[in-house]
């Protein structure tokens, strides 16, 4: 185990790439050490300071609906710019986005073999689009791949989340999708992750997700499922599109007690930039980030643009180029560079490394599960 830890932590990662201004994601600055000062100093224009910070600590955007949006376009060029969607390479660069998770979610109504097939088509589309835009985009499957893409001046693209329907209730399909690059699976909508919580097969599915290195996305799941996943999962868990229920009641938003519990298990809540879940202004989004940071901690909050998902977005945040406006708002509220570096970049890197470490450890002790839903829940 010591050798495995050494291997994971000696790989060139985000802290090394960010230069001397960036503290390691899991540690605060040493006591008595001054906060690294952004370009222009504390009195500089917040937007200029935001851009300087994002140059060192780019955004890890936890959700993009771009794949499904692109299916409806007869032709597009993301490197030159594509105004028919919210996301293209020029706007990703203007927004200082370093890595983007491309959703494989499907329209409601697809189930069974149709859902499995449609998810495979989505996965193939993502890889085809990325390979067609080599000057701006690069596929990544780990934090090492993200670092490589950043070193080459590309935006890293990761696969996920996909919906649970994509599995067809099969652990074998889960493993196949992971081999093809899927890294996040949304549990909501699965028969084995219902209002009553995880079934026996659901717990076996979660254990196998831990074993292969697939992150569990709990946005939209019941509190019973959330509680059980927190108890069973050996790897970090995340919510790809959840804000604070106390500020804006919404089915996917989290009540305060869940946010406190999330902080205790060191999970991650990615706040969506949608008017429906967070409110109509950039200040509303910042209120949610403040609230979640207070209850769960700075290491448990991140960002989810949710662009190209069909949702309306707050003022000043209409597309992927607008992250500096949000960071400027947070700077004006007194967020430190350390906390902002965790928000934009460090926290996503932490849970990806955590899932990878857990998977390598479990693979030494646990064989692939051959369980079927009929065996455990029948």
From TrEMBL:
Start-end of Basic and acidic residues biased regions: 1-10
Xref: Pfam families: Peptidase_M19
Superkingdom to which the source organism belongs: Bacteria
Region described as Disordered: 1-43
InterPro entries: Metal_Hydrolase, Pept_M19
PANTHER family reported for this sequence: DIPEPTIDASE (PTHR10443:SF12), MICROSOMAL DIPEPTIDASE (PTHR10443)
Protein name: Membrane dipeptidase
